[in-house]
Amino acid sequence: MAETIAFSKGADRAKVYSEILPQIEALIGPESDMTANLGNIAAVLKEAFGFLWIGFYLSDGKELVLNAFQGPVACTRIAFESGVCGHCFTTGSTVVVPDVEAFPGHIACSSLSKSEIVVPILSANGEVWGVLDVDSENLSDFSEIDAEWLQKIVGLIETKLRG
After folding, report:
1. pTM: predicted TM-score of the whole model, two decimal places
2. How far apart (Å, rounded) are the C-alpha atoms in residues 89 and 81?
3. Neighbours of 119 (CB within 10 A)
4. Would you tell me how many other CB atoms lie within 10 Å of the CB of residue 46?
5. Taking the mean position of all CA atoms in its chain, how far away is CA 126?
6. 28: nearest Cα among 18, 17, 41
7. How would DSSP label each residue in 44-59?
8. What are the structural domains of the chain?
9. What is the pLDDT of residues 31-57, one digit of tens each?
10. CB 48 within 8 A of CB 16
11. Among 124, 125, 133, which residue's Cα sits nearest to residue 159?
12. pLDDT tens per residue, range 98-141
């Protein structure tokens, strides 16, 4: 696949997600290096939607550690029980936060972040391997549409993990 993506600029999110999903699949399909794949996924999401921050935190067995991302400098390590990412990791469930200031224990890696969605990534044995974290400068920027499509994108990563 070429190192460019095509999508309908200005279209609703569901349409853009539907256009970029097969392109992400083609982009990461032949690549075995997971960091390269995560980096490209973050780049595609950043290009398609312009979110403030898109990235991945992976478990090292003790905490979540920053991996590939697009956006401003981020927190490097997050305790499993801390913030939105930690909550997602410990519950194994997607978390949509309309207003990060209202989320108990939110970690403010950037004061510009107003809303957030975090999706768990499951390993081949069904344990949470890491999380996809997306932050927006707008309140209530994420919906069930984002949750549905980001879970599909994470599904591509999980397929790679199953090998």
Report:
1. 0.95
2. 8
3. 24
4. 18
5. 18
6. 41
7. HHHHHH--SEEEEEEE
8. 13-162 (3.30.450.40)
9. 999 999 999 999 999 999 999 999 999
10. yes
11. 124
12. 999 999 888 877 788 999 999 999 999 999 999 999 999 999 99
Whether 2 shows a pLDDT value over 70: the answer reads no
Give the end-to-end CA distance of the chain in Å, rounded to a whole number. 20
Q: CA 121, CA 151: separation in Å to the nearest integer?
A: 9
| Phi, psi at 15, each rounded to 5° | -65, -45
Contact 70, 155 (CB under 8 A): no
% residues pLDDT > 70 (the chain): 99
Which residues, in sequence order, are bridge partners of residue 8?
A: none
CB burial string 69-80: b at 16+ within 10 A, e below = bbbeeebeebee
Q: Strand 115-122's sheet: what is its strand order?
A: 77-78, 64-70, 53-59, 128-136, 115-122, 95-97
CA distances from 108 to 28, 116, 140, 141, 144 (A): 31, 11, 17, 17, 23
Cβ partners under 8 Å of residue 47, min gap 6: 5
Sign of CA dihedral 134, 138, 140, 141: negative
